[in-house]
Amino acid sequence: MTTLSVWIFGLLCTSLTGAHGLNYIPEKFVVANTGDQNEVTLTCDTAFSGNVTWKFENVLVEEFFDSVRTEGQNLILTEVDSPMFGNYSCWNKEEMLSLTYLLQEAEDEEELDSFLTCRAKSYDCKFSCTWTGGEYKAVRLGLGPDCYKGGKSCRWVSSSHQLPDGGFQFELSHSLSPYAEESNMLELTAEAMNDNFVILRRTKRFYLRNIVQPDSPQIVRCQEVEQDLNVTIDPPSSWSTPYSFFSLEHEIEYVLKDDGKTGRSLSALIPKSISMLRVRSRDSLVLSTWSQWTPWKNVTY
What we know:
Oligomer: single chain
Structural class: mainly beta
Helix content: under 10%
């Protein structure tokens, strides 16, 4: 290996290593595959009309790759190989005019449900999503056809915070009316990128009612009614109002005093001879996912 080759190889490794760890999806990027037979064009978005030079990771592209050429202000990649993914910038002397990332399309064929789970606490205008694909360091979500098409008008949502296991938590807003019959699906697009400039792009469509899961309800009191116990249950504070319109169905699980056996009831009346109980709820109209159980509550009377 010649001295020049060693220098270029070392510079390439240093440059790529420094570029890794990007923790956001870049504003402008082009997606390609290794071994792609089609040429890839990178455009220099600028009002400047003169000649420009192109750099890869801040080094002139001609010093790295043979399979490139320029056409006007555009950079043409005649073939794409693994070392070519990263950031490309066009310059007018010492002034950077535009920055574009070349990203590799993920080969992972898994559906978005493998990485992303969403939940709405109510029919109000917000819901949350959790991303669990650990290898991806930058993730964003967008609602609507503009995001599905990759349009510039898409309002992307970044993670509100990263979870201890490396996942991400998102809070999203929608414009569906909670009082109207739901006829249109939500269209959710996710983009995720890892340290090797590999980007995963997936879209899922779902009805809001299919992700509704109330918070746990509140056990207000237990009152004797002859041989039974009447349990008063209030909806969680996060549930949609009025409660007469957004009704909940409650299920009670209890433990019998005599033999320790458990029983369940969808009625507010349960056997009086119990030692403790807990409750969960769901939308009574669409039979949504059950809420989490409340903690066990000791019964004394």
